[in-house]
Amino acid sequence: MSAPKVHVLVDGYSVLEGDGKSMRANCTCSVVEGPPHIIVDTMTAWDAEKVLQGLSSLGLQPEDISYAVATHGHCDHVGNLNLFQAATHVVGTCVSRRDVFTLHDFDSGGTVFPLFHVLQSRQTMQQSVAPVANPALLPWFVTPLRPSAEPYKLSEFVDVIATPGHTSEDVSVRVRSRHQGLVIIAGTACGTVAV
Q1: Fewer CB atoms near the end CB (10 Å): N or C, the chain?
Q2: Which residues touch 62 (CB under 8 Å, ≥6 apart)?
Q3: Beta bridge partner(s), residue 23
Q4: Which residues lie across from 60 on neighbouring strands?
Q5: Within a domain: 193
Q6: CATH code for the domain of 96
Q7: What is the pLDDT of residue 1?
Q8: Domain assignment of residue 194, yes or no
Q9: How many CA atoms lie within 13 A of 146 on its CB side?
């Protein structure tokens, strides 16, 4: 198996509007070129053509994607998951393929009932997460938040790790690439900043 390469299909953005009461925002959409091929954060439902054009530029079609990962469940990250019907979907810490859900515990390495997992994650998040404004906290995105956390392995070189922060169910995709080194695809790498 060859080492993967990460491609950004569409750059994300977040801009506060002049009235200060609304913002324009969308996530970054990325592809990990494998095998397996993995798409991360599929943008809003109005961005299907951008996603399809980006895939086409790499010689890929939706049916070539083995995993579709949404780093969390907000609408700008899950809008085009329906394009990837042949893929296993990872939405935050929920893993499914069709109507089969994998009970993977991102927190402790064991399998638990998902409701308990959600409650445990929220409690752990409140106790463990500090503001990311401190650059010393950047390794938080490189390793699982807790030493006992269990990554969800997608391949020899790619796994999904719990990185609660923006939401309690946030995950990031950790890629070990021969060409690019260690790459972390985080759905939200910064918080809201008042200016």
Answers
A1: C
A2: 52, 55, 83, 84, 85, 86
A3: 16
A4: none
A5: no
A6: 3.60.15.10
A7: 57
A8: no
A9: 18
At residue 84, the pLDDT reads 98
Half-sphere exposure of 95 (CA within 13 A, CB side): 18
Give a yes or no: residue 164 inside a domain: yes
Q: What is residue 112's predicted lDDT score, i.e. its pLDDT?
A: 33
User: What amino acid occupies position 99?
Assistant: D
Q: Is 11 contained in some domain? A: yes
Name the 3-class secondary structure at 168.
coil
Cα angle, residue 86 at apex, residues 85 and 88 outer, rounded to 5°: 90
Does the structure show a pLDDT above 50 at 187? Answer: yes
Q: Write down how long the chain is.
A: 195
Question: pLDDT confidence of 26, banded at 50, 70, 90?
Answer: very high
For residue 161, with 0-12 CB atoms within 10 Å meaning exposed, 13-18 middle and 19 or more buried, which class applies?
buried
Range of the domain at 106: 5-186
Strand order in the sheet with 171-177: 152-153, 158-162, 171-177, 181-186
Q: Strand 37-40 to strand 158-162: parallel, antiparallel, or no bridges (unpaired)?
A: unpaired
Structurally, the chain folds into a number of domains equal to 1
